[in-house]
Amino acid sequence: MIVMQDVRIGTAFVMDGNGYVALKSEFSKSGRNAAVMKLKIKNLLTNQISEGVYKAADKVEEINLDLRPMQYSYNDGTDYVFMDMESFEQVEIPVDQLGDTIFFLEDNMEIEIAFYEGQAVTVKLPINIVREITETEPGIKGDTSGKSMKRAKIASGYELMVPLFCEIGTKIKIDTRDGSYVERVK
């Protein structure tokens, strides 16, 4: 059993007798209110996607999925195609099933795909990836506090907040679990 607070992107769990995988996970605690998790989840059998707010202390049973090493090949417009590294079989996963993970995929990237009852359900990315900033505004000269942030965009179109010293062409490390900036890479 795990508590809802520990549910991250790609975590599979049983709730109300159905199997789900988290596509988006956000912790929220405000004022006197109880801590909650805002989740975007997908039913593992019906592929129905829903969003909800759950108490962070609620317990759910985690599902162990069959993980296989795969390589991202290409996107054909409606599906993302992955190749099994051992058998060279191709697996297609619809765009809507992948959630925000599509922003972090790169050609020939080696990842793990989780299977539930023989069906591909989600992609497990490395925790940290390195990407180059393709678009951002110039930083304010002299502001070196490190706490000021600005918007930046990477090649996939994903936007995130980065420190002011990051410029176009700067390589940064991104946490794929929540899409946040980790550090600048030299």
From TrEMBL:
Pathway(s) annotated for this protein in UniProt: Protein biosynthesis; polypeptide chain elongation
Transmembrane segment boundaries: none
UniProt cross-references to SUPFAM superfamilies, sorted A to Z: Nucleic acid-binding proteins, Translation proteins SH3-like domain
Protein biosynthesis keyword on record: yes
Alphabetically ordered keywords of this record: Cytoplasm, Elongation factor, Protein biosynthesis
Name recorded for this polypeptide: Elongation factor P
One GO-annotated biological process of the protein: peptide biosynthetic process
SMART domains to which the protein is assigned, alphabetical: EFP, Elong-fact-P_C
Family from the record: Belongs to the elongation factor P family.
Domain of life: Bacteria
Chain ranges of the Translation elongation factor P/YeiP central domain: 67-121
Purpose: Involved in peptide bond synthesis. Stimulates efficient translation and peptide-bond synthesis on native or reconstituted 70S ribosomes in vitro. Probably functions indirectly by altering the affinity of the ribosome for aminoacyl-tRNA, thus increasing their reactivity as acceptors for peptidyl transferase.
Gene3D superfamilies: 2.30.30.30, Nucleic acid-binding proteins
Location(s) in or outside the cell: Cytoplasm
Domain Elongation factor P C-terminal: 129-184
CDD domains referenced in this protein's UniProt entry, alphabetically: S1_EF-P_repeat_1 (cd04470), S1_EF-P_repeat_2 (cd05794)
Molecular-function annotations in GO: translation elongation factor activity
Species for this entry: Entomospira entomophila
InterPro entries to which the protein is assigned, alphabetical: Elong-fact-P_C, NA-bd_OB-fold, Rib_uL2_dom2, Transl_elong_fac_P/YeiP, Transl_elong_KOW-like, Transl_elong_P/YeiP_cen, Transl_elong_P/YeiP_CS, Transl_elongation_fac_P
GO cellular component terms, A-Z: cytosol
